[in-house]
Amino acid sequence: MLSNSSGVPLYQQIKDQIxxxxxxGELTEGTALPSVRALARDLRISIITTGRAYAELSADGFIxxxxxxxxxxxxxxxxxxxxQLLRQVEDGLQAALDAxxxxxxxxxxxxxxxxxxxxxxxxxxxxxxxxxxxxxxEVADAK
Length: 143
Fold this sequence. Notes:
By secondary structure, this protein is mainly α. The protein contains 6 helices and 2 strands. Mean pLDDT is 84; it is low at 126-143.
């Protein structure tokens, strides 16, 4: 699904959606993607737009293009996955901070809300982040 009114360039929307499908496991290693021409035709957009999305996905390590054969999903690199997930977390936190600012919330209110959300999560959902969480709480308490 593409939106001309979202303010996000079409190539970026394509790149984001395919990247998300790869990260979520919906598209797995070796999966063939539609050709640049076929995708452009299906979406009724320029070949240049789809080509740019594929070029950026390739540069980011998500796909490879084999001349004469097409584009294929590459195996996920754990460092790449972590970087993409960190970017998603940062984007989500920035959106939350923007909303908190519009609501007139203070820093302490936001921290309390975040702590409440973290505590409400099932234990297995944030086991790997417990040390980072404790460290951020110490920093917050020190201020």
